[in-house]
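Students often ask why inverse folding is considered easier than folding. One informal answer: many sequences map to the same fold, so there is more than one right answer. In these notes we will look at a single instance of the problem. The structure comes first.
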C-alpha cells in the first residue's frame, strides 16, 4: 500500500547526516522535522530567517510569532538563531545548505522540476524555491506519485513552467524511492506491498528496474 505522509517523512529523514544544514520546503517536506532519527543532529533553516527549527509544537507550545516560511507555527531548538530574510537567502545562494527537500507538481528524467505554478490557477508565487534548487548541495523531491486525477507526475519532460533544470537527484513518492540517473528514473525502493508493475504503470518517464527492488523501511503510523 502507499506510504502515509508520516512514513514518507521517515524515509526522507534517513538521508540526513550529522551536521547537515537542511531546508524543508512548504507542504509535505515540513513533516521531516518531526521524523529526524535519534542521534542525528541537523540544523533546519527557513527562508524567513531562522536557523534551528525544532519539531512542530504541541498545543501548549504554540507561539504565534514563531513561524516558518509557510507561516506554520514551529518550535526553536536550543541555540536557534533569527535573522532577516536577506541573510537567509545569502546562506542559500552561497551554497551553505547541504540538503533541500521540496514538493513538486512534476519532475522529469533530466532532473528538471516544476513546483511553483499551474497556468490559469492562482498561485502565491515561487517563494524561495528557485534559489534553493540553484544553491543546495543536494535536493530531494517529496511528492505523491500521481496527481488527484491519477496523472503521472514523473515525466519524460515537464509540461509546467520550470523552477530549476537538471537539479533533482532523488524523488520520494508515496509509492517509491527513485534516483534521477542518465535520463531515467532508477527505481531504488518501493513502498511495502506496492508492486514494480504498479509503479511503472503510474510513471511516464523511463524507469530502470534493477533485478531486486527492496521495500522501503518505515514504521507503522
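Output (designed amino acids):
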Amino acid at each position: 500500500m502507499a506510504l502515509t505522509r508520516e512514513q514518507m517523512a521517515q524515509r526522507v529523514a534517513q538521508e540526513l547526516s550529522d551536521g547537515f544544514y537542511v531546508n524543508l520546503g512548504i507542504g509535505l517536506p515540513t513533516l521531516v522535522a518531526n521524523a529526524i532519527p535519534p542521534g542525528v543532529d541537523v540544523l533546519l533553516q527557513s527562508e524567513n530567517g531562522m536557523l534551528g527549527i525544532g519539531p512542530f509544537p504541541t498545543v501548549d507550545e504554540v507561539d504565534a510569532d514563531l513561524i516558518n516560511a509557510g507561516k506554520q507555527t514551529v518550535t526553536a531548538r536550543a541555540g536557534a538563531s533569527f535573522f532577516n530574510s536577506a541573510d537567509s537567502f545569502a546562506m542559500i545562494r552561497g551554497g551553505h545548505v547541504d540538503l533541500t527537500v521540496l514538493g513538486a507538481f512534476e519532475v522529469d528524467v533530466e532532473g528538471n522540476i516544476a513546483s511553483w505554478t499551474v497556468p490559469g490557477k492562482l498561485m502565491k508565487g515561487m517563494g524561495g524555491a528557485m534559489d534553493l534548487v540553484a544553491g543546495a548541495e543536494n535536493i530531494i523531491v517529496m511528492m505523491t506519485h500521481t496527481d488527484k486525477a491519477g496523472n503521472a507526475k514523473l515525466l519524460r519532460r515537464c509540461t509546467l513552467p520550470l523552477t530549476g533544470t537538471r537539479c533533482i537527484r532523488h524523488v520520494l513518492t508515496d509509492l517509491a524511492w527513485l534516483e534521477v540517473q542518465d535520463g531515467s528514473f532508477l527505481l531504488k525502493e518501493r513502498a511495502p506491498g506496492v508492486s514494480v508493475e504498479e509503479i511503472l504503470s503510474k510513471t511516464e518517464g523511463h524507469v530502470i528496474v534493477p533485478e531486486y527492488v527492496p521495500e522501503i523501511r518505515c514504521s507503522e503510523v
